[in-house]
């Protein structure tokens, strides 16, 4: 007897009943979600181009201008190059390194006012006991033929191919061969300008970031204290003007010294030294930012009561206390100080957006949103804009009326909701009511909020399994059927003691569909075949959707029989459109919302609606027609998706392809219905079963809402104008989600439609109306207030780069549907250059134009932007398939900030000096090959893949501890899990891998990569700091390019 499924779903953050809120009766207007809010007149024209992703700037991949002519010139330029956060100093031997200088201090403008919202926590909170989720040991499956060989493919990525050596867009000359230029610990780094003689160099790279010399610290600006201005300047790379008297310095075109970009570029014998130094400097900073945030913000709980306060980074572990604004687990903003007017916003080009994860799981030490019941008349709302009761409503006239914080309209307080005010104007029951004191809570919805004014039926799950030749052969059918027998006991439920009331149904298909009657009264399941797929209907109503416990025997019998029935199938063709139609029709017939789990293997070429042809054409890559590859090839699925949304039919798609299946088209329905896509290319039971099963278990068990509508309301002055994610919109305001699970995010962009005031700040309220898994109609409310500023410096002081990158990635990944990829890339570079140039121009103190000065909060913008630019979607290598690009494109669209962060900049953990006693993870190192020691072992993860890289010179003891063999040559590169050895190192390493996996929403298969083995090519793809095979720039090259772009904007 097998235990229950192992992959624990995330903690349920389901609402908790807040019982003291009594029922009442009154009339406060029925609250339809559909009616658009009436806004005050717009005083300002709204320009869609305000966030400009297409600019007149020269393209990113252009050839750069004429090089400086002589070596002497290069020498001079190097001589005047300066790296660090210091003010320009005279060039010359012995000039001071950046280390010993105090942080550059310009543009220190006092912070904007911080205002307290909500006040302290409610004095008493009911204790909450979290539902326990099933856990058990992993199960093994005898079913599924053992494969004869394990393909060495990357999950989600195509087979490796020999590296295609493409010239970097930056390097026109031969690659430098000189050694790195290491800043020496304890000694100032010497700039490479001493005539033609090189500085003393060591063969190895710069020191590990984590062990960086004190100079890194010296550059670091202390963390922001609440109420204290943070140091705005993180770093400067300067090229001071040429020193008079230097020999042979040729006149420069614009009279200005060229940035040392040129130096990096053309001064071949010094390129490497220069790059290493800059790389060392900035990447030290990169690791430092994350570590400092952990040290400074990880120990104290983050309280949300202070408006305009940026939360800890996503890489920091912290506790949240809700004091009136939504937790950053629910909402993260690009800017916590919004510009007061659109001119400022336009000037800065900083996107104004929020990444919202409405049903985000919470850690066990945080309280899930309370459930508030305002009685038969439903939640109290503003009469005009329909915003829900929240801490931003101001009670007036002794508590008889309230003024809306969003639209200023005054609304009568219904008698049952009346309460007296205290001397400060607050209701005396303020802290007893979540909706008056907290950022996030839920309302019970009334029948007015239900479709057709009818209380919804409990939702249903329908499993639709491809039983064509490929699906049977690769073991998928056997595995799914075996797993469902136990998994069905763990369907989502709100109360762990009560059985889930989600009903289930089963369909198998190849080019025809087989429906199963699994009614409890039957001795055996009955199959009904529908071969007319042109006009899909459900051949049985009674007995198709059943309660698991009632029909258990029949269901188990069916799941035992399916693999046998199709074991010898020769049918290779499949349909796909009719499969979704079948599930949709079944839900319609049962008059309920639900989710379809489709397990599919091949391109649907059988004659049927939604039939597809193979249109994979790699020749289109890089052309203006490339965008067509991301668009669906037929419109059938768009129409079908719309029908699914109307019914509340969410579709999750599990793909098991051996070749092109057209993910761009098959993904239309999942990505329009709030569903997920999982892809297991060249699926083999032996090596991929664990990943698939963990994904499936989590997907089936995870908390979710059905038939959801999300609306984001804002205070006067801004409005939500654009939305990114997996949903459907039939008007400009309502985000319709047939399903919304705990992993899905919706990114919302805001633009000005009027001026904002520093006094009131900007408010947003995200309301999600959904049906819970028990069939209850609810509203989840998240409130968020940010500051507004009239000084650009305040904007730049309170940005969150990880969220900006999340927004940029989603914007760019959507833009590839309509624009040539080159334009998309150019626009990204241009917008970031404008952001940084605006800061340089308006916020930084006067300094040499050659300096690259970055705002403290954005000093990592260039490094992360480069990762987005060189990602597989925007800069594909020869070895990535079109399906994988379409898959990644769709995946990124629903990522939260922590997922996008690690996806674009993977985490690389050194293990050779692992402290087996410590419970914390080792400090990460930069994603660069030069960080890898030949004697070391490293773990790399990006949320989808996890690699264990083993250096050829790793010590025998280390190998013995990990693999149980002292010989490098005996390590099996095909292993997908580490042997459970009885030593502290092995134990700790396996714990680390499990803890890393537990942080991600998808299971990551382990791949062991031996240095100099063929698999290393795949691994190196994730060393995003380095130049990539597909032409992606190294970080240093990109930084130089960025610096040039900024200088052009400034000149
Ligand atoms: Zn209002």
Explain the overall architecture.
Pfam families: Gelsolin, Sec23_BS, Sec23_helical, Sec23_trunk, zf-Sec23_Sec24. With 1051 residues, the chain is of the alpha/beta class. 25% of the residues lie in helices and 16% in strands. It has 24 helices and 31 strands. The strands form seven sheets. Strands 1, 7, 9, 13, 21, 23, 25 and 26 form an eight-stranded mixed beta sheet that branches. The longest helix has 30 residues, at 268-297. It is globular. The structure holds zinc ion.
Bound molecules: zinc ion
Shape summary: globular
Number of helices: 24
Helical content band? 10-25%
Class by alpha and beta content: alpha/beta
Number of strands: 31
Query: Which spans of ≥5 residues are poorly predicted at pLDDT below 50?
Result: 1-276
Q: What are its keywords?
A:
binds zinc ion, zinc ion binding, vWFA_dom_sf, seven-stranded mixed β-sheet, disordered N terminus, SEC24 homolog C, COPII coat complex component, 1051 residues, Sec24-like_trunk_dom, alpha/beta, 31 strands, eight-stranded mixed β-sheet
Topology:
Layout: E1 16-17, H1 71-79, E2 82-84, H2 214-219, E3 233-238, H3 261-266, H4 268-297, E4 302-303, E5 320-321, E6 331-333, E7 337-339, H5 342-348, E8 353-356, E9 370-372, E10 394-396, E11 401-403, E12 410-412, H6 434-437, E13 440-444, E14 460-466, H7 469-473, H8 476-487, E15 503-509, E16 513-517, E17 526-530, H9 552-565, H10 577-590, E18 594-600, H11 636-647, E19 649-655, H12 663-666, H13 668-672, E20 677-679, H14 685-701, E21 704-714, E22 718-724, E23 735-741, E24 746-752, E25 762-771, E26 777-789, H15 792-797, H16 801-815, H17 821-842, E27 852-855, H18 861-869, H19 882-892, H20 897-904, E28 907-910, E29 937-941, E30 945-950, H21 956-963, H22 984-998, E31 1005-1010, H23 1016-1021, H24 1035-1050
Parallel strand pairs: 1-9, 4-5, 7-26, 9-13, 14-15, 14-18, 18-19, 19-20, 30-31
Antiparallel strand pairs: 2-3, 3-27, 6-8, 8-24, 10-11, 11-12, 13-26, 15-16, 16-17, 21-23, 21-25, 22-24, 25-26, 28-29, 29-30
Bound molecules: zinc ion.
């Amino acid at each position: 007897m097998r235990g229950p499924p192992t992959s624990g779903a995330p903690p349920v953050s389901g609402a908790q009943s807040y019982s003291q809120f009594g029922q009442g009766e009154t009339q406060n207007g029925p609250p339809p979600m559909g009616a658009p809010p009436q806004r005050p007149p717009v005083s300002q024209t709204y320009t869609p181009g305000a966030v400009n992703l297409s600019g007149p700037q020269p393209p990113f991949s252009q050839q750069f201008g004429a090089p400086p002519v002589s070596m002497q010139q290069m020498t001079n330029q190097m001589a005047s190059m300066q790296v660090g956060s210091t003010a320009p100093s005279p060039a010359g031997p012995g000039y001071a390194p950046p280390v010993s200088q105090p942080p550059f201090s310009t543009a220190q403008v006092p912070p904007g006012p911080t205002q307290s919202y909500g006040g302290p926590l409610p004095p008493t909170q009911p204790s909450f006991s979290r539902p326990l989720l099933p856990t058990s040991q992993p199960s093994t499956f005898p079913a599924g033929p053992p494969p004869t060989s394990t393909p060495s493919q990357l999950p989600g990525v195509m087979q490796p191919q020999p590296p295609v050596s493409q010239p970097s867009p930056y390097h026109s000359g031969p690659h430098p061969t000189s050694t790195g230029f290491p800043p020496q610990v304890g000694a100032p780094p010497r700039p490479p300008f001493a005539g033609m003689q090189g500085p003393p160099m060591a063969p190895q790279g710069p020191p590990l970031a984590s062990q960086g010399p004190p100079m890194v610290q010296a550059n670091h600006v202390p963390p922001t204290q609440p109420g204290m201005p943070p140091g705005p300047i993180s770093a400067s790379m300067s090229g001071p003007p040429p020193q008079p008297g230097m020999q042979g310095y040729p006149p420069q075109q614009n009279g200005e010294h060229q940035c040392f970009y040129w130096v990096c570029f053309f001064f071949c014998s010094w390129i490497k030294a220069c790059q290493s130094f800059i790389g060392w400097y900035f990447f030290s900073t990169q690791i430092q930012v994350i570590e400092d945030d952990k040290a400074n913000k990880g120990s104290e709980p983050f309280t949300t009561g202070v408006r305009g306060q940026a939360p800890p980074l996503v890489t920091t572990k912290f506790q949240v206390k809700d004091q009136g604004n939504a937790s950053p687990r629910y909402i993260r903003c690009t800017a916590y100080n919004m510009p007061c007017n659109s001119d400022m916003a336009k000037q800065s080009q900083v996107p104004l957006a929020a990444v919202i994860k409405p049903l985000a799981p919470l850690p066990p030490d945080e309280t899930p949103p309370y459930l508030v019941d305002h009685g038969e008349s439903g939640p109290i709302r503003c009469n005009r804009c329909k915003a829900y009761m929240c801490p931003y409503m101001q009670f007036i006239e002794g508590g008889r009326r309230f003024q809306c914080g969003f639209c200023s309209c005054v609304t009568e307080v219904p008698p049952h909701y009346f309460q007296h005010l205290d001397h400060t104007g607050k209701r005396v029951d303020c802290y007893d009511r979540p909706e008056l004191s907290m950022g996030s809570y839920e309302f019970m919805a009334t029948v007015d909020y239900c479709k057709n004014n009818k209380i919804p039926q409990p939702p249903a799950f329908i499993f639709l399994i491809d039983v064509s030749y490929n699906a049977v052969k690769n073991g998928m059918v056997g595995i799914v059927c075996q797993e469902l027998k136990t998994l069905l006991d763990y369907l989502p439920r709100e109360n762990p003691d009560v059985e889930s009331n989600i009903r289930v149904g089963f369909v198998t298909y190849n080019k025809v569909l087989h429906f199963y009657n699994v009614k409890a009264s039957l001795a055996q399941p009955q199959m009904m075949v529908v071969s007319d797929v042109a006009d899909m209907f459900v051949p049985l109503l009674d007995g198709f959707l059943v309660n698991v416990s009632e029909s258990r025997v029949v269901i188990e019998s069916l799941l035992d029989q399916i693999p046998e029935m199709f074991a010898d199938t020769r049918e290779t063709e499949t349909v796909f459109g009719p499969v979704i139609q079948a599930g949709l029709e079944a839900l319609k017939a049962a008059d309920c919302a639900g989710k379809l789990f489709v397990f599919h293997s091949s391109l649907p070429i059988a004659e049927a609606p939604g039939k597809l042809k193979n249109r994979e054409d790699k020749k289109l890559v890089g052309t203006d027609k490339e965008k067509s590859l991301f668009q669906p090839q037929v419109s059938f699925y768009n129409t079908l998706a719309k029908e699914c949304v109307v019914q509340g039919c969410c579709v999750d798609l599990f793909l098991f392809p051996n070749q092109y299946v057209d993910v761009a088209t098959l993904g239309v329905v999942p990505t329009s219905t709030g569903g997920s896509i999982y892809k297991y290319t060249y699926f083999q039971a032996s090596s991929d079963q664990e990943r698939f099963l963990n994904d499936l278990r989590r997907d089936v068990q995870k908390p979710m809402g059905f038939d959801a509508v999300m609306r984001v309301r804002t205070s006067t002055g801004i409005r939500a104008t654009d939305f990114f994610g997996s949903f459907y919109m039939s008007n400009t305001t309502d985000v319709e989600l047939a399903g919304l699970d705990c992993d899905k995010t919706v990114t919302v962009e805001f633009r000005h439609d009027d001026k904002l005031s520093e006094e009131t700040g900007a408010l947003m309220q995200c309301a999600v109306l959904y049906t819970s898994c028990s069939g209850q109609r609810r509203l989840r409310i998240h409130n968020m207030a940010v500051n507004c500023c009239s000084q650009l410096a305040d904007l730049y002081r309170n940005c969150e780069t990880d969220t900006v990158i999340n927004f940029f990635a989603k914007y760019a990944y959507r833009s590839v549907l309509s624009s040539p990829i080159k334009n998309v890339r150019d626009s990204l570079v241009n917008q970031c250059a404008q952001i940084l140039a605006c800061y340089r121009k308006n916020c930084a103190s006067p300094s040499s134009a050659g300096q690259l000065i970055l705002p403290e909060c954005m000093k990592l913008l260039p490094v992360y932007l480069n990762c987005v630019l060189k990602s597989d979607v925007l800069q594909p290598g020869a070895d990535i398939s079109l399906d994988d690009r379409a898959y990644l494109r769709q995946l990124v669209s629903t990522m939260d900030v922590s997922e996008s962060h690690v996806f674009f900049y993977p985490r690389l953990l050194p293990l050779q000096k692992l402290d087996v006693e410590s419970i914390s993870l080792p400090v990460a190192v930069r994603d660069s090959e030069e960080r890898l020691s030949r004697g070391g072992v490293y773990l790399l993860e990006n949320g989808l893949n996890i690699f264990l890289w083993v250096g050829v010179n790793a010590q025998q003891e280390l190998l013995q501890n990990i693999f149980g063999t002292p010989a490098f040559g005996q390590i099996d590169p095909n292993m997908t899990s580490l042997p459970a050895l009885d030593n502290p190192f092995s134990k700790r390493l396996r714990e680390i891998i499990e803890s890393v996996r537990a942080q991600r929403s998808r299971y990551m298969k382990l791949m062991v990569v031996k240095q100099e083995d063929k698999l290393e090519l795949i691994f190196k793809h994730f060393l995003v700091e380095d130049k990539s095979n597909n032409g992606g720039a190294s970080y240093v090259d990109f930084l130089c390019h960025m610096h040039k772009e900024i200088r052009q904007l400034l000149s």
